[in-house]
């Protein structure tokens, strides 16, 4: 078409300009409108068949670790996701979290969001100075951005948790949602009950969301680096467990229906296991270290035994949101909970950090990068939560928190920290001069032993040790001020 039009273009300098325009148009169509999808060489990320408390991603066992700058890159044109994704990969992270739904409210979404747009086409009324949305017509820019984000994450080795829905939290957010009746030309969502968005009772809202979520699942079917969260923080405290279970079951059924004819089947996640359980769910999410009384926090989940194979035999657990901005948590306090969760048998840690590129944010990334390095020093597929290798004769420092993983005769890992549970949602760091005097029982054989500083991966001491059936191993720690980790691996 371009070549035929060229023959009709005069004079020559216009011809050159026209050729440049044609080339630009072809590149645009190829890279944006025809969203590229990678050819899969592996099945999508899944629970590992040898130990379903961990993940299998591109042929390798994995724990998933990250700090996410924000969830709403698809909704605001002033948010650039590529600096975040590149930086995350540079720290050894392998996870990001992305919301499919957000109201036009910067208090909900991020600190400085502007330029709101949605999956649906906008209809501007210049006379009234308002914008509404046509819920029967898609916005191609939004969908292209979705592919671009997931494709870049894929190229960087990042798994993306796709949150299909979310709680609205209050009436202000609901009034700013495209599915509120004053914001769309169809009049969908004529209710003041903000929690109606997360029930099956309002069929007009549910019908639009079903169409939307079905397209998301279909669009992302060819990617191996995504899995689907049914709903971020479902309002179970408001609508009750029965309504929450109905809503979650509905979305599970919808995903199954969309993926039934497709080659790839993706994992599903949900928060939290105390409200709703279904064997189609692979990952149960927990937010913050400690709950607010109406939900279970991630450290609470360890204490309740969700990290073992006895309660959730078919799924793993994830600490998929902590927060160092809104809760006032420091990077150091985030380090305590992230290390404790994974060394206690969890499989995923993610910290929501709107101040991602601040000094606090960069400190946190160093800490979590060290956590990833530590976890990949040993074969975690064989381990399970266990501290029984520490004998009662060990003398632990006062107030220390301890978690451990072990595979008898192969691997022993432990983490010790000093944080007090004085905050509602997280630890309060209590520095001091601490020392652990351990007596360890391990089978006969040769082992390497390392004491590691979690803040910067420094190996404080190391050596070769011998296990034996008739005596214990004396393993005193170096002095430390906040936290320390121990790793013993058979040679």
Question: In brief, what are we looking at here?
Answer:
By secondary structure, this protein is α/β, with parallel strands linked by helices. The chain has helices at residues 2-6, 12-33, 82-90, 106-109, 140-155, 171-175, 203-219, 236-259, 298-303, 331-343, 359-375; strands spanning 46-48, 51-57, 60-62, 64-68, 95-99, 120-125, 130-138, 159-163, 226-229, 268-270, 283-287, 316-323, 348-352, 384-385, 401-407, 411-417, 419-420, 428-429, 437-440, 445-453, 458-467, 473-476, 483-490. The protein contains eleven helices and 23 strands.
Structure description:
The chain has 491 residues and is α/β, with parallel strands linked by helices. It has helices at 2-6, 12-33, 82-90, 106-109, 140-155, 171-175, 203-219, 236-259, 298-303, 331-343, 359-375; strands at 46-48, 51-57, 60-62, 64-68, 95-99, 120-125, 130-138, 159-163, 226-229, 268-270, 283-287, 316-323, 348-352, 384-385, 401-407, 411-417, 419-420, 428-429, 437-440, 445-453, 458-467, 473-476, 483-490. The chain has an 8-stranded parallel beta sheet with strand order 4-13-12-11-10-9-8-5. Strand 20 (445-453) and strand 21 form a beta hairpin. Helix 7 crosses helix 8 (236-259).
Which features characterize this protein?
491 residues; elongated; six-stranded antiparallel β-sheet; 11 helices; alpha/beta; 28% helix; eight-stranded parallel β-sheet
Low-confidence stretches: 1-35
Extended strand count:
23
Question: So what's the overall shape?
Answer: elongated
Mean pLDDT value: 89
The profile of the biggest β sheet is: 8 strands, parallel
Strand order of the largest sheet: 4-13-12-11-10-9-8-5
Q: What gyration radius follows from the Cα positions, in whole Å?
A: 25 Å
Approximate strand percentage: 25-35%
Quaternary structure of the protein: single chain
Q: How many H/I helices?
A: 11
Q: What structural class do the secondary elements suggest?
A: alpha/beta
Distance N to C terminus = 68 Å
Helix content: 25-40%
